Amino acid sequence: MTTDEGSRVSLRRLLHRLTASEAEIEAQELRRESAQSGGTPARQCMRGQVVSVTGRLRTVVYTPRTNLPTLEADLYDGSDVVTLVWLGRRHIAGIEPGRHLTARGRVAVRDDRKVIYNPCYELESPK
After folding, report:
1. pLDDT(11) > 80
2. Is the pLDDT of residue 105 over 70?
């Protein structure tokens, strides 16, 4: 890449950052972090595939059910959402909205949404 091409690329990136919405910039940063961690982008996860997905928890919801309570969290990596479901759990320390983590497990599909049941997970230190 010549210096002139490098300047154009830098200018293009600057213009994109100035004109992009906050959500677009956040998604781009999450995709970059996910790629650096070596995880599978959520949009590429397929049913039955064992994956490692890195992102930020958007929501965490406890669902009291008569037969089996569940804790559900939506993990967003900038490309798509994977719902993490812990069966029989009401609360897990560190699982809270805004927290970054890496989840590993087999992808299932429930109501046209990607789900990982009882994932192994690794919390990232708060930023």
Report:
1. no
2. yes
Under 8 Å between Cβ of 53 and 82: yes
List, in sequence order, the alpha helices (H) in 20-112.
Answer: 22-37
∠ CA 14-44-73, nearest 5°, is 90
Q: Judging by beta carbons within 10 Å of its beta carbon (0-12, 13-18, 19+), is residue 88 exposed, middle or buried? A: exposed
What pLDDT does residue 8 have?
66
Q: Which residues, including other chains, have CB under 8 Å from residue 124's CB and lie 6 or more apart? A: 99, 100, 101, 102
Alpha-carbon Rg for the chain, nearest whole angstrom, is 17
More confident call, 38 vs 61? 61
Positive or negative, the CA dihedral 127, 77, 59, 61 is negative
Distances in Å between the Cα of 54 and the Cα atoms of 5, 20, 46, 75, 110 are 33, 23, 16, 8, 20
Scanning the structure block, which residue is given the tokens 């109501």?
111
**What CA–CA distance (Å, rounded) separates 37 from 75?**
15
